[in-house]
Amino acid sequence: WALELGENMNGANYPIYRSTKTALNMIMVHYACLLEKEGFVVSGSDPGYCGTNLNGYHGYRDPRQGAVALVKTAVDAKEKVHAKVIDDEGKAEPW
């Protein structure tokens, strides 16, 4: 999730997590720009906090719900998803 100056610092103890999310978004945008002229659509998908073995199954969503979000992003219209991270409700996320 994005962080802006003056924002509530709920994730203040996770600077590495936030910086790697930013790096991932930057790489995604880089490839979106690089590959667009070849006809590729590049986007990211945020399936929400799904319960998996990585978080001890404490996520608030079933992994199958996360899979649905990923597939929706994969098949959505280029102008809606290209060079964007799409959340589990189909909206572009700020970063």
UniProtKB/TrEMBL annotation:
By what name is this protein known? Uncharacterized protein
Q: What does UniProt list as this organism's lineage?
A: Eukaryota, Fungi, Dikarya, Ascomycota, Pezizomycotina
